[in-house]
């Protein structure tokens, strides 16, 4: 009985029974209209996409104008024999590429670029790291020494090249004067005039010019090494060399690899310092891929050959960049979970 009474009360309660009007008819309550969240969501997504397009479009336009268009123009030019006057009508296909790849001067230029890449890393890496470790300590004149080392890098290549061209002048240059004063003597043809010494002399100038970048990058990387690790190593009785080998160099690894990539790409594209100092001479002893294509284009008006050489330079640089990325930079770009 109690259950029946409860059931009737609940059925007759205003909260559970349909509402009745003045005439006794039951009035049905209309369900609430659905919110317009779907349309708002679509508008929000559209607004975000428009914002992305608005901010990315200028950068893409500049990239296409100054990167994609020149590359396409160089590829088009490389398929024609063209002297720089008139339209491109003398189509030669891949003959310009065959001429470039079978040219002894160009193959020698590729070798010179690779030698500069290797020597730049082998010389500047240990030297820059040693100077960075030295300047990372507190010492008198630390800021002045950092500035002195970094100044050559911020100098324009033209200015630096002219300075060294004057210093290396045969007989009348400052360097030859100092060597003659101490009785060492100097090459008769000059440091830049001897085919056996020109490339090595160029490497000295390049090391002086770009060592500051390595030092500054390494110093910046050293600031990220926690001091607690050094203190713990000292408490454990580790030597200075053990601290550098076990703590500093491993934690400085991403900076070292990034600098190596920048040095490699810069060495492959090297032009201005070589052009100012030697113009690729003597006897093509310092010719690079960039000086070769500039000489073919501006000096000999072989724009088809120059275009083919520029495409080959682009392919070589791209190949080495991808190879470096896969072999060396891969550990810095893959997720943390994938690392050993």
From TrEMBL:
<keyword id="KW-0813">Transport</keyword>
<keyword id="KW-1003">Cell membrane</keyword>
<dbReference type="Pfam" id="PF00528">
    <property type="entry name" value="BPD_transp_1"/>
</dbReference>
<dbReference type="InterPro" id="IPR035906">
    <property type="entry name" value="MetI-like_sf"/>
</dbReference>
<feature type="domain" description="ABC transmembrane type-1">
    <location>
        <begin position="110"/>
        <end position="324"/>
    </location>
</feature>
<keyword id="KW-0472">Membrane</keyword>
<feature type="region of interest" description="Disordered">
    <location>
        <begin position="1"/>
        <end position="40"/>
    </location>
</feature>
<feature type="transmembrane region" description="Helical">
    <location>
        <begin position="52"/>
        <end position="72"/>
    </location>
</feature>
<protein>
    <submittedName>
        <fullName>Sugar ABC transporter permease</fullName>
    </submittedName>
</protein>
<keyword id="KW-0812">Transmembrane</keyword>
<feature type="transmembrane region" description="Helical">
    <location>
        <begin position="147"/>
        <end position="167"/>
    </location>
</feature>
<feature type="transmembrane region" description="Helical">
    <location>
        <begin position="303"/>
        <end position="324"/>
    </location>
</feature>
<feature type="transmembrane region" description="Helical">
    <location>
        <begin position="197"/>
        <end position="220"/>
    </location>
</feature>
<dbReference type="InterPro" id="IPR051393">
    <property type="entry name" value="ABC_transporter_permease"/>
</dbReference>
<dbReference type="InterPro" id="IPR000515">
    <property type="entry name" value="MetI-like"/>
</dbReference>
<keyword id="KW-1133">Transmembrane helix</keyword>
<feature type="transmembrane region" description="Helical">
    <location>
        <begin position="259"/>
        <end position="278"/>
    </location>
</feature>
<feature type="transmembrane region" description="Helical">
    <location>
        <begin position="114"/>
        <end position="135"/>
    </location>
</feature>
<comment type="similarity">
    <text>Belongs to the binding-protein-dependent transport system permease family.</text>
</comment>
